Amino acid sequence: MQVMVIGLGRFGSSLAEALIERGHEVIVIDKDENLVQRFVGKTDTAVVADATNDTVLRSLGAGEVDVVVVAIGDDVEASVLVCISLMDLGVKKIIAKAEDERHAKILTRLGVNQVVQPERDSARHVADLISYPSFSDWFLVSENHSIVEIKVPKDFVGKRIRDLDLRRRYNVLVIGIRRKEPVFDRKGEITDLKEVFIAPPDPDEELQEGDTFVLLVPSDSLEEVARWKD
Ligand code: ATP
C-alpha cells in the first residue's frame, strides 16, 4: 500500500517506521528538517515542507495514495487545514490524530474517515488489560464486541469445541486457537516449540493443555468470560 504520513512527532515517526517494516511504500512529510532526515535512506520520499500548503500536497500526489495519516496534534489549525486540503484532493482514506476530545470532534465533523487519540487509546487498552488480568490481550472491534485472548481453562482441555457449546452458553465465538506445537529433530526428539494459529478452528478440534483461545465476545459476556478458571 502507498501511505503518506504528515507530521513526524513521536506518533507519526513510530507509525511511519512500523509501516516501512511491514513493506508499505511510505511518503513522510514534516516541516522540521531534522525529523525528516531520520527517514532518508529508509524511504524514497522524505520531504521537508509545510503541509498546509496544498500545492505541496498535490505535487506529492496525495490524491493518489491509498491512505494519508495526519499526525499533527498540537497545532489544531494546521491539522484542520491539511485535512480540508486532502479532502479537496479526493484522498480515499484520511486517518487523523487528535490531541483531545475537542480536536477529535472537529475532525469527525469535517468527515475525516478515522480519528485516533493514541495516548487515550493506549491508556484505555492498558486499563482494560489491568481490569481483566486473565486476558492476555483484548481490544474492542465495535461498540459492543471485543476480541479476547484467554488461556483455555483446565476444565475445557480434552473436550471438542463443539461440546463446550460456548455460543449458546456465553454468546461467544471461537475465532482461533493459539497452540504451541513441538518441533522434532531427526532422532524424534523435541528441539523447540513453534506457535501455530488454528483459524477458524474445526468444531471437532480437541482442546489441548496450553492452548489459548481467540474469541469474539459481546460486552455483556466479558465479565463472565474473564472469570473462566485457568
Ligand atoms: P507526538 O505526541 O506524537 O510527538 P505531537 O502531537 O506532540 O506529536 P505535534 O507538535 O503536534 O506533535 O506535531 C507533530 C509533527 O508535525 C511535528 O514534528 C511538527 O513539526 C509537524 N508539523 C506540524 N505542523 C506541520 C505542518 N504544517 N506541516 C508539516 N509538518 C507539520
Task: Give structural notes.
The protein is an alpha/beta fold. It folds into 2 domains: 2-131, NAD(P)-binding Rossmann-like Domain (Rossmann fold); 135-226, 2-Layer Sandwich (Alpha-Beta Plaits), CATH 3.30.70.1450. Helix content is 32%, strand content 30%. The chain contains 9 helices and 11 strands. The protein has helices spanning 10-21, 33-37, 54-59, 76-88, 101-110, 118-131, 161-164, 166-170, 222-226, and strands at 2-6, 25-30, 45-48, 67-70, 94-97, 114-116, 135-142, 145-151, 173-184, 190-198, 212-218. The chain has a 6-stranded parallel β-sheet, with helices on both faces. Strands 7-8-11-9-10 form a 5-stranded antiparallel β-sheet. Helix 4 packs parallel to helix 5 (101-110). It is elongated and about 65 Å long. The two termini are 41 Å apart. The model has no long low-confidence stretch (mean pLDDT 94). Bound molecules: adenosine-5'-triphosphate (ATP). Residues 7-12, 29-32, 35, 50-52, 71-75, 78 line the site of adenosine-5'-triphosphate (ATP).
